[in-house]
Amino acid sequence: MWSSVFIHSLEHPAGGYKKIFESCDELAEPIPAHVSGKIPAWLTGSLLRVGPGLFEIGDEPFYHIFDGQALIHKFDLKDGHVTYYRRFIRTDAYVRAMTEKRIVITEFGTAAYPDPCKNIFSRFFTYFQGIEVTDNCLVNIYPIGEDFYACTETNYITKVDPDTLETIKKVDLCNYLSVNGVTAHPHTEPDGTVYNIGNCFGKNMSLAYNIPLINAFCESNYFVFVETPVKINLLKFLTSWSIRGTNYMDCFESNDKMGTWFHLATKNPGEYIDHKFRTSAFNLFHHINCYEDQGFIVVDLCTWKGHDFVYNYLYLANVRQNWDEVKKAAMRAPQPEVRRYVLPLDIHREEQGKNLVSLPYTTATAVMCSDGSVWLEPEVLFSGPRQAFEFPQINYKKYCGKNYTFAYGLGLNHFVPDRICKLNVKSKETWIWQEPDAYPSEPLFVQSPDAKDEDDGVLLSIVVKPGVTQRPAFLLILNATDLTEIARAEVDVMIPVTLHGMYKP
């Protein structure tokens, strides 16, 4: 365990991080892992993770970190033994690419072009057949009822078998919900209710946001939706893509004058609260937690300062650069920061100019402006030069939507994932796990069966050490209380970067 101050000077001159962005083969069958340390007897289940596993098709490369074809990974833990298995998800994007030996469906940052073997008239008309949305479900996996689905940010999710990793079927959410796309980060209530944020095409070439609900009942009182200055240009999405072969990234635009808006709605009944909460511009990809306390909504976020779109810095050409060039690019990118915002529920216009936040444990403020909007200033919970606390996790089962203390995250050092972090959001104390030339994934919290405290449990992360000749990847098990190592299960294969996943008991 190293201190967070010590961590800031760590360098990666050997560039081993490039290996986590290289293609790999799937496995014919699970392989045994070499276990060191002692795995807790109660830890019996599967760690499921997804991410890009194929970064090119023949001679055609994918260009963005969110383009590689979806690969699902599984570490099985039972009676102190561990096996590792992985398979590509048989999406339409993958199957057709393998069949035609080229990129067939446009991905996030990579455009697909017509089949060069077709004659000129066939290629011409292919451009006018409309947008074929990708089903490359490489971002996350989550349960709905008794089933499990891999997902990305489009309207397609893919049902998979968590035991065999077999692809079962493709599901188009447009057949069930009024959406054109949903996020890969749904919120699941204790009773199994699943919420997500989606968008649909509105009037006058606009996008409307909506909140799809799967299942029935939820006890929480509010939705908080954060609207950042990064937008989809719908006109470009619907027209220029099909004509010129552009990709998803080409359709994003950033408004340097908009700032960021917080929208509030009640859950039951579902009604929009017409208070305008606003603050300075930031990017946002992951929320940590949100809860109601004494008439206020507390919102903890992993932010990136400014309106410049962070995904612009996640092209594979950038993250595969030598270390000095990676650092230069990160210096131009928005600065990451963990922030706490507080939204007052009881607002009166006559309180103009007054800080409306009276919670004793935060320095976040909310001030009524002359136009009736409420200007928010955050409390900074964590900040380090080009050091991001990202891919956040909490004791989700017990503390999602509640006043909590601990968050766990993947530490990004100039966009390179090189450490696992724990943050006390009340005291701002941090703990770090790190090894030289080791590149972990998002840490998942698993609560101990006899847990008494919020952080009684373990963290699970896949770690890659590209410089090691034998068993270069392993499942890491950490004590969530102090981030000391409990055990590791090493395998003799490389494992590429994974994005999100879940633990299935």
UniProtKB/TrEMBL annotation:
Any Pfam family: RPE65
Keyword Transferase on entry: no
Cofactors demanded by this protein: Fe(2+)
A biological process term (GO) from this entry: zeaxanthin biosynthetic process
Keywords for this protein: Iron, Metal-binding
Family: Belongs to the carotenoid oxygenase family.
Protein name, as recorded: Retinal Mueller cells isomerohydrolase
Species: Sinocyclocheilus anshuiensis
